[in-house]
Amino acid sequence: MIDRHQHAAVVSRLLATNPIVAVLGPRQVGKTTLAQQVAGAWPRPVTSFDLERAADLAQLEDAELGLRDLRGLVVLDEIQRRPELFPALRVLADRPRTPARFLLLGSASPELLRQGSETLAGRIAFHELGGFDLAEVGTKHFDRLWLRGGFPRSYLARSNAESDRWRADFVRTFLERDVPQLGIRIPAATLERFWAMLAHYHGQTWNASELGRSFGVSHHVTRRYLDALAATFMVRVLPPYFANLGKRQVKSPKVYLRDSGILHHFLGVNTRRDVERHPKLGASWEGFLVETVIQQLGARSRQCHYWATHTGAELDLLVELGGKRLGFEFKRTTAPRVTRSMREALASLDLTRLDVIHAGEATFQLADRVRAVSASHLLRDLHP
After folding, report:
1. What is the DSSP letter of 240?
2. Longest dimension (CA), the chain
3. What is the chain's alpha carbon radius of gyration, rounded to the nearest angstrom?
4. Which CATH superfamily is domain 5-128 in?
5. Is residue 286 within 8 Å of residue 203, measured between CB atoms?
6. 10-24 pLDDT, tens per residue?
7. Most CB within 10 Å of its CB: which of 51, 82, 163, 175?
């Protein structure tokens, strides 16, 4: 087992200052296990409800009546099945002296996020739980995490073949069961074809019209498919950064499959040798490190962008954090160098620092405000 104490500590801190905390993420990333860890350290009574169990649902038929006498910590698992509980939770959260704190676990959906934010505004804090990250598994397992992705059962499988079979089963279950439960009305076969096609656009600028032509639908439809996968944590839509520079800047987002293991499943590769020989090798490595850097910095999605101009200057990742503007380039090379594009990004965006994450073993200064940072020492050398 891999201890996820950092997430448990964050959730415990949020519960100390908020009457309601929602832990959101895809299935099979360990939300229930995390809740058990938080509950195990809770000093007062703990009551748990699984909203996929008929008995628990019956107990909450009248939610306010079923919850009002509870004290301590109340855990509501699979909250996406009963978003109509939010009005009752609002009433309970507003009671004097807050006799109970509520920990909600669920898979994100547009409706769930909208209702939670609107109904429980000022009462709820959100925490996103993804798969294992580099800090949890350690840099010595960098290649394994990159190849298999962070879903616990995929990462911990006894072999690469078993890991890939788990990912295939996960994709099928997600499309056939989870997507409809989240209120997304897209046929499973259609969304799977789109997801597989999107894997081949991983790391590229979003072109809805091109994808629409390839898929035989309008660009509006492809955007709806993309939004569905983004809302369920399967895809990261990295928005462009705009600055008043007097030059034409790219205005379309870039798209990445968030879990590298799911990407490799759709690309049909399940060994390190397969990945090394695949045309999407560089894009796969870049996407994995984009997610890693965002996770390690603790950045929110709205703080993360990429930047590009129509004259060819670009920056893979721009993170605005704590008043700093941090730039990142990802180069699968052992001999990184400062390029004209990097110098233009430094000057145009007024970056605090630009880190070039590379495949070599050393971290060193490349130029003023430019560092070469070894991917294998990322946890040690990456800091805001």
Report:
1. B
2. 65
3. 22
4. P-loop containing nucleotide triphosphate hydrolases (3.40.50.300)
5. yes
6. 999 999 999 999 999
7. 163
